[in-house]
Every structure is written in C-alpha cells, then in structure tokens.
Amino acid sequence: MKKIIGLFIMLGLVFVGCGKQAPTPGVTDTEIIIGNIQDLSGPMKELGAVLPSGSNVYFRYINEAGGVHGRKIKMLVEDHQYNPQKAVVAAKKLIEKDQVFCLYHVIGTSPCEALRPILAETGTPLIAPATQSGTMSDMTRPAGNLIFHTDTGYDKQMVILVDYILKDNANAKIGIIYQDDDYGENVLKGASEAEASQGISIQKEAYQRGATDFAGQVGNMIKGGATHVIIAGVVKEPIIVMKTAAAMGYSPKFFGTSPTMDHRVSLAAGPAGEGFISANFANLWNSDASSAVKYRELCAQYEVPKAYMGMYHFYGYITAKVLVEGLKRAGKNLTRERLINGLETLNKWDSGAFPPITYNSKDHAGTESVILVQVKDGVQTVITDWID
Amino acid sequence: MISLFTDISQEVISGIALGSIYALIALGFTLIYKATEVVNFAQGELMMVGAFVNFFFVTQFISSAGESSLWIFFVALIGSIIFAVAFGWILDFVINRPLKDEPIFSVIMATISLSIILRAIVAMIAGPMSLLPVSPFGENVIKIGGIVISILDIFIIGSAIILVSLFYYFFNKTRWGIAMQATSEDPIAAQLMGIPVNRVHALVWIFSAIVATISGILLAPRMSLLDTSMGFLGLKAFPAAVLGGFGSIGGAIVGGIILGVIETVSMGTLSFHFEWIKEINDIIVWIVLIAVLMVKPDGLFGVEKVKKV
Amino acid sequence: MKGRYEDENLYWIPLLIGFVLLLPFLLQSATFSYKYYLFVLNMAGIYIILTVGLDLLSGYTGLISLGHGAFLAIGAYTSAILVDQAGISFFISLIISPLIAGLFGFVIGFPALRITGMYLGLTTMGFGFIVKRLIIAFREWTHGAGGLDVSSPVLFGYTIKSDWDNYYLIYTCVILAIFAGRRLAKSKIGRAFMAIRDSEQAAEASGINLAKYKMLAFFISGLFAGFAGVLFAHTSHFISTDHFDMLLSIYFIIMVLVGGAGSIYGAVLGTLFIVLLDNLYVPMIEDWIHSFMNTNAGDIQSLIFGLIMFLFIIFQPMGLYGMWLKLRIYWKIFPFNPRKRFT
Amino acid sequence: MTELTIKNLHMQFSGVVALDDVSFNVDKGEIFSLIGPNGSGKSTLFNCINRFNDPQKGQIVFEGHNLLKMQPHQIMNAGIARTFQNIQNVPFMTILDNILLGAHHRIDNRSTIQRWLSRKQRQKEEAMGLEILDLLGIANYESKYMIGQPFGIQKLTEIARALVAKPKLILMDEPAAGMNDQETYEIAKIITEIRDDLGITVLVVEHDMSLVMSISDRICVLDSGNILAIGEPEEVKNHPDVIKAFLGDPADA
Questions:
Q1: I need a labelling partner for B13 at 20 to 30 A (CA). Which of B296, C90, C114, C296 fits?
Q2: What pLDDT, in 10s, does the model give residues A296-305?
Q3: Cβ C205–D81 below 8 Å, yes or no?
Q4: What is the value of pTM for the model shown?
Q5: What interface predicted TM-score (ipTM) does this complex get?
C-alpha cells in the first residue's frame, strides 16, 4: 500500500508544472476561438438553434473576407438548458478545456449572472450577453468590467414604453402582465421608476413561467379598466393574452417588451394581434437599415433556412458585428485587455441595426434606446425613431 | 356585486376548462397506476408526442388535399389514435415487461428516462423551431350573459367528462375492467385466476397513450406555439392526480377541476383584491394539495391500503 | 479485541482516501485543463454529500423526497446571508446553516407521519416550490429572483478561492459525510430506519417510535443537504432560485437509485456516475457522433443521456452497487459459477 | 402471580365483532396458548396488546401499567416483545443486525454517539445479538443477509429479535406455521427453554395442536370473539363446547 501511495506522489511530482498555457488563450496566428453557451435543449431551445446560426452568418462572412487581422473566428457552442449551474459547468469547460478567448452571446439572465465569478476569476470577457436584463450592465458587481451589454435593459424599456403611452394619451390607465421571475423583477423595477417619475400607478398582474391560461390576468385588466396593457412575456404569452382578450371582447392597446419582438407573435395571434407594439432594441431584420440589407444578402448567399430568419437570427448577426468591431479595434496583438480597451473606444458607433453604441471604462451598458415596432396588417412596421 | 359574480363565474369556467386539461393528463396517470401501480413520469411527454403526431398528420393531409376541412381533422384524429395504440403497445413492451418483477422505483426511473428520450427524439425530428398548431374550431367563442367560453374549451371539458365516465364505466362494470382492478391488487392471484396479466398491462398502456394523445390534440391549440416543453405540463397535472387520490378515476377529474379553478380564481379575482395573493400564486395549488393530504393522506377519493400483520 | 462479526474489509479505505487527496496532482500532470475536471469533481462532491443524506432518507427509511433541492437552497441561502450580511464566520455558518436546513426537515417530516408513497413524493415536491417562493419573498436578504453573490469561504484566516482549494475543502467534507453516513447506517438509528422501510409493524413492536425516527430521518437528510448547500454557495459564489429547480431534485433521486438505494457507497457511486456521465462522457460521445452526423447538439446530448439511463435501468435495476455486489460474488466463487445466474 | 390481565376487552371493525367481552389473566412464568379457528380474534387480541388496534372497551393491564394508554412503540419498553405470523424482517440487512433491531431500547443514545468514535460499543451491541444466536443454535448465520435464507432461519430470527429485547412477556403469533415436524419440535424445545432458562412468560397463538398440547401450561379457546374455555390442556381438550366448535356438534353428525 505504501508503495502505491509513494508511486502516486512520485507521479504527481514528476508531472507537476508540465501543463502549459498559451500566453493568450484561444488566440493563434490563424484563429480566434470564442465560446457561446446557448439553451439547446431547455425551455428556450428555439433561440439556441437560431442565435448561433445568425452569428455564424457574420463570422463566415468575415472569415471569407480574410478574418480579423488575419485570424479566422471559430465559435464553440455549449448547452445549458437554461440552468445556471449547467451554464457554469459549460463556461468552465470552454474557458479551461477549450481555452476560448472570450465568451459571447450567452443566453439568459440567471445563467449570465451565474457566470460572473468565473469571468472575474479568469479574466474572460463576456461580449453581448443575450439578455436584456438591466442588471447585466451593473459595473459594481463582480466581473462588471468584463461584461459588455449591447441591449437596452427591461427596466429602461418599461420607462420608455410608459413615456410613449402617456405622451399620446395623458389619461391612459396602464397595466402590465409580467413573468414572475428575474425577468419580471427587472420589469417591475422599471415600472416603479416610471410610476415615480410620472406620478401614476400601474396595475400589475403576474403569471408563472410556462402558463397556458391567462383568463384571470386578462379579467383583472378589465376590472382595473386598463386601456394600455404592456405584456412582459416571451413569445407565447403575448399571443395567448391577446387572443384571450379578443375572445372576452376586451380591446386595449397592447405593448410588449423586447422578447415579444418575434414576428411569429403577429403570425400566431392573427387578427387579435393587430396593432401590437413591441419595443425593439434593434432595427427590424426586414427593414432598410444598412445591416439588415447586408444580412438578407448574406442569408441568401449562404442558403440559411427560411424558418431561421427573423428577429432573433438577426440579433445573433448584429452582436457578432459588435464583437468583430471590438476585435478589430483590439489590434494585431490580441489579448483580453486589448479587446476590452478596443471595445471601450466605441463611441456612438453605428452597427447598422443597434442604436449608437457607446462604451467607456465606467459604462458598459452600450445603449439605452429602443425602437417601437407595430403590427400593421399582420406585418411588423417601424413606427418611431430611436427613443431613450 | 353582480359584476363580481360575473367575474368569478368567468374565472370558474376558465378554471374548469384548464382543470379538464389537468384531468385528462391525470386520467392517463391514473389508468397506468390503477393497473400496474407505476407512476408514469412520461405522461406529459406521451401527450406531447400525440400533439406532434397529430400536427404532422394535419399538415400533411392539408397540404395534399389543398384545403382544410373538418374531415381532415377527423381523419388526422383517427390516424393519431392508431399511432397511439401502436405507441402504447411498444411502451408496454419496452418498459413494463422487462421491469415486471423489479422494484417500483426502477419503473419510475425508466419512465423518467423515457421522458428525456422522447423529448430529444421529437425535437430531433421536428427541428428546433416551434410549430403553429391548427385548430378545427378556430377562435370561435360562445357568449352566455357576460361569460365567454371558447368552442375549444367546450370540447376539452366535454372530452374530459366523456373519457372519465367511459373509463369509470369500464373499470367498474365490465369484465375486463374488473380484471384490471384485480391485477393491480394482486398480480399473482390474478394470474392464477386466469386473468392474462400481460395483456391487461399492455391494454392499460395503450389506453393511457390514447388518452394522452387526445389531450395533446386538444391542448395544442391552447398553447399558441407547439414545442417539446409541452411535456412539462405533465408535472403540473401530477398534483391533480394526487389530490383526487391516485388510482381513482373519478378523482382525476375532481382533482383536476379543483386545481384548475383554484389557479384561475387566485390569479384573477383573489389577486385583484388581495395584493399578497400574488406572492403565493404559483404555490397556492401546492398549499391546497398539502393541506388536503394532511387531512386525507390518500387524496380525496383514494382508498387506504390496509396491511395485514 | 477483534469482533467476531466482520461484515467488510476496510483496508482499502485509506488507499482510496489517499487517491482522492492525490487526484488533483494526477489530473494536473495528465492534462492542462485539469481545472475543468476539478470543477466537475467539486460539483460531484457537493452532490455526494447531499445524496448520502438523501439515501439515508429515501434508500434507508423509504421516504421518497422529490424536493431535496430545497434543502440545498436553504443551506446555501442561509449561509450566504449569515456570512455576508450578518458577518458570521464561515466555520460557524458551516455548523449553523445545516442545522437550519435540518429544522426545515422537521417541518416537512411532519406531514410524512401521515402521508406515504407517491403522495409524500408530491408533498416534498410542493415543499420545493414553496421554499423557492419563500426565498423570493424574503427579497431584502435574498435579492429575490435576481440571485445573490456569495463571498469565498475563509477558514482559519485562509481564503479558499481556487478550484484546487475548493477541491480539498469539499472532499474533506465528503469523506466526513461518507464516514458519518456509514456509521449512522450501521448504528441503532440506521437499523431503525431500515426497519421502518421494510416493516413498520416490526419496527413498532421493537420499540421504535415511528414518528420520532421519520422526523429524524428528515432532519438528518436536511442536515446533509444543508451542509452541501453551504459548500455550494461558497464555492460557486453565485446562487439564484433557478439553481435549485425541481429537475435537480429529480436528478438527485436518480443518482441515489442508479447507485442502488439503501447503500451509502451506492449513493456515492451513483452520484459520480451521473455527474461524470452528464458532464464528461455524454459530450464525448456527442463529439464522436458529430464527426459523422450533423444534428442539434442539445437534443443528441439528452438522447444519449436518456438512453444510457434507460438501458442501465432495464439491464441493471439493482443499481451500480448491486452490480458491484454481483461481481464480488462472481469472483468469490469464480471457477464454479452457475451458468444461469449471470446471463 | 398475575402478570397480564385482560378485562372485558371489546373490539369491532365497522360492525364485525372481533373480540366480544374477553377476559383472562396470564401468570408469570407461564406458557399460555390461544387457540381457535381462523377469524376467531386471536391475532386481533395480539394487536390490541401491541396497540396496533384500538379496542373500544376494556382494559389491558401489564404489571400494573395500563397498556391502552401507551403508544405501540412503548409496549416494548414495558417489557412485551412480539413475533409475527407473516415474517416481518429487513431483507437487505444481516441476520445479526435484524436481531439487534430488537435491542433498540436497550441501547441508549449516548452509546450510539460513542459508537461513532470507538469500536467498543459496537462489540458490546454485537455481543447482545450473538448471545441469543448461540442460544438458538444459529450462531454461524450472523453475517449472512436475511434475503434468501430458509424459512426456518427467518422464523428463528424473528424469535431471536423478540428475545434480544430481554422482555418479560413474549407474544408469539403462530411460531410453527409452515414448518415441518422436525422444525416444530425444535420450536417447542425453544419455547420451553425461553420459559425455563430465561424466565419469560410466553403467550402463543398456534394452530398446531400437538405443539400447543405439549408445551402449554394453560390454554384459552376463542371462537368468533368469545372465550369458549380456559384451562389446562387436558381440561380444555375434553370441554364440550370446544369439541363442538372444533369437531362439529356430535348430535349433527
């Protein structure tokens, strides 16, 4: 027995220190490896298929054009099933095993929040987390200086939506139907800010993730006499809410936060969804914005499946653009610090779809404006300019 | 006062519709539990598979016929039920037979892994994008007084009542049904009495798959988008089965409706008038369930098993 | 003096402990991404502590719990609040927080006196949801659904920060937990638990107070889970209610059953098996499949995981420990094995 | 000297009368048998003493303690052990551990904690069980698992589990059921040994008449909840009511 333990110790001593690490992980002369953690088999798995595909369209375009400073971008995708613990394991794998240069476009608020300790420990930047939670750009939290948020927070979106409603109709009675989790909590934060600044009171109704019946909430909206209802759901909920309201003969103006921007909302809701206004943090994929035109061109060129194309696919595309811009500005000698410095030089930078993005060492929120999109005759149409 | 009454009756009606869905899923749990004492954790997934198969048939038939009519939905329904029969039989063959003499936990585990497998297979075949389900009833609603109910919900409530009474009759009045009850009480004695236990078990899995398919078909249009996460609804119907008393067919519908009504009323009128109810909205069902179990440990209609010393 | 009754050989236990302690060195020498493997092992270690407790409850006492993630959450949140907000030292929190989780065990143990079988499973599942809601309701301390940052543990003036340090902290606790679990299972209390599982009448006639021992089982199980929760909170540095969802609780039960309910080593083996399967082997198989087939990675992963589990249950319903026992018997009577038994 | 007094015991299950006004005494150091056809209330009587069933009326007094005021698990502390008709044991536990189950109330909590740290207490516990195993002559079975053991061994373990508790009174529910003649003889020997060597009072329910007649000091005959006769074996054997109940009315024949 002693012999075996001795052997272990000797083996250990011989090999200690043999592991070697590249000076900058994930960067070689020809390649930059980045990591992406998506929900590939959980409740949000639609996005898990679509978002990386969108990003890859842009990466392919860049790679075919010679890459960034001669380096091609390679994206590894892991699954987290919308579970923060799995997200941490996946991040650990990407960072320690696959030695990625940075993490990019990780989906979900709680998975992204759960990554903070690892990011801080390893100094890995997280570019464009795919969540609109305002908490992501909080610089006082761990790894705050490593996370670059591209989207307008839900809290900010709420303030903007309430402003917009009251501007047209000062007597509007506003109600919100929100998902009862971290998403909803961020929405409520914005709602109470709006309440305080406008001196109104907003009727709030909660629902549980995965709910399929909204009769109670819609009934309460009728009782409360809400004339404008903001739905802070994902894709399914606004459809059901609007259909239920139509069935009950209740027709307020419906608004939605950014996750409801998907074009299938109007598709599935049909006539009930006519006039639905959603707050988009980016321009429409089928609009005339410069990025959108290029995007459609590239999609046609690379034969992207038609079902994938849409707002979320486009979202993946433009955040890839932000990342690539940061990599370009980081210069030839790529390190993580240089990437951060490179991104922090962005000043009112126009991506062609996002509102102008500004980063500096004290603010990683990027942007705080949204564009409002209304469903007219079943087609999403931009109705405002950037509002903040 | 009158408006309060209308509000509450509207919520109760919606709750009954929601509860009928729970009841349909709970009925599937109950059937298998009644005959084999197995808790089938894959019941929600069976429903999901049924909904997808039906969706496949409907879209195929519509695209080949060129237009949608009630006939197509009917034929697709028949097709889905035939599929459910085959599917139930296969499940019995794959799960029930190899694990016949094993502890009950093994079978539960097998059903949990089955649910994982089914979700993965359906997702692989159907692709990552969720589908837009089609309903033969469209968005039509009926208005009685101030109360609105959609035709789809009427169908859901109706099929829940019909299926539950059908199985209630079957289990309590027909020879096969009584044989099934005997099988669950004591499989060995039932075998000795000449009841073909294997065939009874296969039949029960088939029934359960059919019920799941029907509930999946009815539920899909309510979900607005069809994807594999529909299977998780099985877990929401679990308390309904338990509240009614596992293994009691009448209990499934009573438990389902009670929970459905509690859910809608607490989300609606109750949380409108009492702010704090919002905090406990998603656990109110569980609080009721635990409270009932504390008083009646075997559910509302469950039968206590007496062990002989 | 040596007892007449020897049920097992214990000489290999120090060897195993030595191996556990040297494993990080081995990993470091074998691969440069050892930190990832250490991380997975750390996670497995935390889960082992919990499943040992869960095994005492579900495997030994036969009281099924589908809400054990809740105890993990209680331990984690209590410790996070005690250490970061009340300023209590980590070491003391390591004692107090499990006790609080254990007290919650008493609360859920109370319905267990009347409710049995799947009904109890559902009650504990409901308990899991209720605890989650309670955590959100105490917003002031827990930051609601948003999650809570947790500090690194400080033990005797030394801050435990890296995966390496975490490994030794966690596995010292794991060894203690396994030791405690084994001793408990072999004592009067363990015998009482098993008697309650197999024959409540025999237990009562032998003077075992059913109420007391069922509560005790929940208390002890909550204690282990709370202990795991403290380690979980302070080694992952961020906790949220999403961490402790119901599927996690079901995974815990799967771990116990795969290992073989009613044996502490079984729980350990089962936990290692599932965690390693989920995080190392399934991705490996998936990579291999991807080399000749192009599918959605997430679906294929769950499919492989489900299939392995399923086949395992079909062919090895007694669990890993049962397999090990069979093997041991096989080698004991090696040349004379009856052919029928192992086919 | 009277050890167990049963007075006017009445028990019914939703209309079915299981015990109807049953009274008798069991003296210390006696082997007292309860016989009667199936359903005559023998096991119910045991369950009443064990407190698994709640009688509606009557008294059960053991050494001055009113058993009806106790919880089932307190009966063992009062000094009454029991074996079961359907064997009740823990299959995946060794025979020794199964037996030590009965010693539950003899091991106090402090020594349980001591046992965590030292082996001494463990050996002390083992000694309790081994003593009984030696007594019953199944000493070499101690570390075998209960599952798969022959029926006779399982029955003996059941008795051993009751004995290790060092009871004053032991209730045996059909100790010889399902055994062959040889084994029944062994059981008879063990029962007498329990009484003679250990001084434990034995209350037996049994169908095997030869066993009952050979070992009993007194016999009580029950029929549908009523006592037909109490007395010494010979006395009972010739009691007209007993003959009528067991062999049928000679007048009918």
A1: B296
A2: 999 999 998 8
A3: yes
A4: 0.91
A5: 0.90
